[in-house]
Specification:
The protein is an all-alpha fold. The protein contains seven helices and no strands. α5 packs across α7.
């Protein structure tokens, strides 16, 4: 097993791919600990202690929800956008059907539309999660968002 690993590391292409993968994992783990500005982290911890549903959601977000991090949504907006685009390519939106038949050029255009849709869905999902967490915290007196008005400073 070790000899196979040593042989793989001697090839430049495989070594570059391994380093790239490790860099992406490092960036994701770093982003999972950066809390979104304006969020009361102690209130979120208190809310997570009292709600088992949030523990399950935290598991799916790769521990990003516990700190309400930048990457708390995970890949769900992108996966949702891909599913929507694939469904729209089934003779619903003629332009997407045309792009699906164009080969590589159409695939690039479809990928670009999927990325834009991902940004829109991530924005909508983040607002929904924030509103949902605030609604969960109201009965127990937990406010997720800090007072960010200029008068409080």
């Amino acid at each position: 097993m070790f000899s196979l690993l040593i042989k793989a590391l001697k090839q430049k292409e495989i070594r570059v791919r391994i380093y790239w993968t490790l860099l992406i994992l490092l960036v994701y783990r770093f982003g999972a600990y950066i809390t979104v500005p304006g969020v009361n982290a102690s209130a979120l911890t208190k809310l997570m202690d009292q709600t088992s549903l949030l523990s399950i959601l935290n598991l799916f977000s790769g521990d990003g929800l516990s700190a309400y991090s930048l990457f708390a949504l995970g890949v769900s907006p992108y996966v949702t956008a891909q599913i929507i685009i694939q469904l729209l390519q089934m003779d619903i939106v003629p332009k997407l059907v045309e792009w699906s038949k164009q080969g590589e050029t159409g695939r690039r255009k479809t990928t670009q539309v999927t990325r834009y849709l991902t940004i829109v869905l991530a924005f909508i999902q983040s607002i929904g999660i924030t509103a949902g967490l605030n609604a969960l915290g109201e009965p127990i007196g937990v406010t997720l968002l800090k007072n960010t008005s200029l008068n409080s400073y």
